[in-house]
Amino acid sequence: MGKYIVIGGSKGIGSAIVNNLLENHEVINISRTEPQSTHANLTHYNCDIISDDIPSIDDADGLVYCPGSINLKPLNRLSIEDFKSDFEINVIGAVKAVQAYLPALKNGKNPSIVFFSTVASDLGMPFHASVAASKSAVEGLTKSLGAELAPTVRVNAIAPTVTDTELASKLLRNDRMIENMKERHPLKKYLQPQEVADMATFLLSDKAASLSGQIFKMDCGITSFKI
């Protein structure tokens, strides 16, 4: 049985990751809201990764940082505070988590860290300036930490396209928008949280023992194909 820390595991992709891990592993969820699941293997700490002191943990085999933002506005409507807030949620929170739990990870077995980026870091999209800037920093962090922590801790990131979560609900709020979103992607679909969670679970596992410093595009073809 492994031991995994999930930051933001109460909703969306984070919740799906927690559920993937629960049957066979101990899971520590750290988030502002109670998780939907209850299980003997689940421990929940209610706190804000940005502003609160986070719990001490002595050992862990993996860390997943799930918090993110989708702050889509034209540049002239994005304030400097918007940029700072997105950077804090996506980057500073991740750094805080790694700094706090790196000693625990080094006490774990074949430890792994998983971050989240976005397809907008690779494919220029209107109104994505703030989120793309902060998630691009996450990709740089992934590669830098992967090099710095090798061979002890593996570090990878997943860059999903639109995923059917509460965070993306404004992009999928009616049938027309749902169909348009499907049509934008060469595979004629967008992502479900479980698909992304399965990739994260793989990256945490020993099956991904040779992978570090990688950004995995789960893009339904949108950054890879022009059809």
Description:
With 227 residues, this protein is of the alpha/beta class. The protein has one domain: NAD(P)-binding Rossmann-like Domain (Rossmann fold). It contains 5 helices and 7 strands, in the order E-H-E-E-E-H-E-H-E-H-H-E. A 7-stranded parallel β-sheet has the order 3-2-1-4-5-6-7, with helices on both faces. Helix 1 (12-22) packs across helix 5 (193-204). The radius of gyration is 17 Å and the shape is globular. The N and C termini lie far apart (45 Å). The mean pLDDT is 94.
% residues in beta strands: 15-25%
> How many beta strands in the DSSP annotation?
7
In total, the number of domains comes to 1
What is the residue-averaged pLDDT? 94
Q: How does the helix and strand content classify structurally?
A: alpha/beta
Terminal residue distance: 45 Å
Order of helices and strands: EHEEEHEHEHHE
Q: Quick one: biggest sheet?
A: 7 strands, parallel
Q: How many individual helices?
A: 5
